[in-house]
Amino acid sequence: MELDGNALGGDLSTVFATDVTDAVFVCAGCKHSGVVATLRVWEPAPGLVGRCPNCTDVIVRLVRTPTRVFLTLTGASRLEIPVEQP
Amino acid sequence: MGIISRGFGGRRRESLPGLPPGQYLTHDFPVLSAGPTPRIPLDKWKFTITTETGEKHSWDWKEFTALPSEEFTVDIHCVTKWSKLGTTWKGVSLDTLFEDVESAADYTMAHSYGGYTTNVPLDDLLEGKAWLVYEFDGEPLHPEHGGPVRLIVPHLYFWKSAKWVNGLEMLNDDEPGFWEAGGYHMYGDPWREQRYQGD
Amino acid sequence: MIKRITWRAATVTAVRWETKTARTLVLDVPGWSGHLPGQHVDIRLTADDGYVAQRSYSIASAWSPSSPSVELTIQRLDDGEVSPYLTDVVEVGDKIEVRGAIGNWFVWRDTQTAPVLLIAGGSGVVPLMAMIRARGRQPFRLIYSVRTPEDAAYAEELRHRVRENPGLDVHFVYTRKAPEGAGAPKRIDVATINSHGWPPDFEPDCYVCGPTGFVETAADILVALGHAPTRVRTERFGGA
């Protein structure tokens, strides 16, 4: 079943100190850039798979284990994460 | 561990002695997907074994389905914790496909339509341990379950049984596939509960 | 200041049915520091043998210090593992683990002054309802696609709000069975969004939520009508 990057927010919040659904990714394959919330996300699978909405290449893989989170970002050439102003 | 949710989970799952550790029995056939389901017309379908020297052995649909086939019944174990017992498949033993392949490599990478990959040692594919199947329960294999053809390696976790398989690449060194690179175990033996890297 | 999102044990303080198959759970979450309309929570259920299931659900309620509870409206999917538990098994007094509030992108903030267009497919109305409930004086329009009149959640409250609060319009699209006088059933199309949305010149903030196919259709129409893609925010969920 297909979801989108909004659904990644909770699990990514265990890795990043800030919400990243509004972070901007750049696809390493087609160079498309967009916010993480617009990734196409598939589940259920052994992990969450976020694909580029433009070329469907895999941008992010997130595997949750009882003790760890594996985050594989090989499909993104950049992640631009907004930080809260002091 | 979290708080127990009163009344949750009794309905759909049962534990059974004899299952690999941490697994539950399911009677339906869950569909797991990591992307859009590829639809491959049979006249475009092709399966290729590529050796470490670059030699290719290919079969199109007609050639593939003309090979001797077997019907077999096995238990399957998904790393997401469901096991399904007594599943019946029809397909071609990997022994048949490797008959004329000359290779000294010990490892393989399965490749699929849609870009999925998973690594399996060659020994785990031979001697009646693995098949390329095109029927499930007497029916053509549905695309959701990996049709037209998927790999079945029942003694390893089911992510090793690549859906929509279209090739095996022989490798001298073991390399991680899609989920293995994402944190899953390189080998994936359900009886030793090798779910994640380091298990 | 960094607020770490952690799992918390929420208590169900009330439940109510919104339709025959959708139920709202009112949760008291200890230490909850508020949420924005559009945000969601993750829910984690643990069986007595350790089996764990996790799902995301949108928050339906607007938050304020005087109404601190978190309301979720759950649509039952009959072959689902989690939703039938939340609609049919959970009772007042039960504890559920929640994590949130999650998401800074699919949110509406009351500092936004532009008109707002909300387009909901089925239970995609839930986060949009939170926006309506949080609305101040900004003009809002909701286009709400449902299968039949009986499938419309919050119908009574929406009617009441349209009557009492100037600046809110609601238009229903019925895909299977329309009430008398509402025309034949149809799917959302260009004419619907053209007539019941805002003109692109008004530069509205658009929010679309529903099943994947619905969201694609509505978002494509918005962009084709001339709305800037950066003003169209979407949230897709599986199952209808």
Automatic annotation (TrEMBL), chain A:
A Pfam entry, by short name: DUF6510
Protein name: Uncharacterized protein
From TrEMBL, chain B:
CDD domains documented for this protein: arch_bact_SO_family_Moco (cd02109)
A matching Pfam family: Oxidored_molyb
Domain Oxidoreductase molybdopterin-binding: 35-179
Positions of region (Disordered): 1-21
Superkingdom of this protein's organism: Bacteria
InterPro entries: OxRdtase_Mopterin-bd_dom (IPR000572), OxRdtase_Mopterin-bd_sf (IPR036374)
Name assigned to this protein: DMSO/TMAO reductase YedYZ molybdopterin-dependent catalytic subunit
TrEMBL record, chain C:
A GO term for molecular function: 2 iron, 2 sulfur cluster binding
Pfam family, one: FAD_binding_6
Keyword Secreted listed: no
Source taxon at top rank: Bacteria
Species for this entry: Actinoplanes lutulentus
Keywords of the record: 2Fe-2S, Iron, Iron-sulfur, Metal-binding
Listed name of the protein: Ferredoxin-NADP reductase
InterPro entries: Cbr1-like_FAD-bd_dom, FAD-bd_FR_type, FNR_nucleotide-bd, MRET, OxRdtase_FAD/NAD-bd, Riboflavin_synthase-like_b-brl
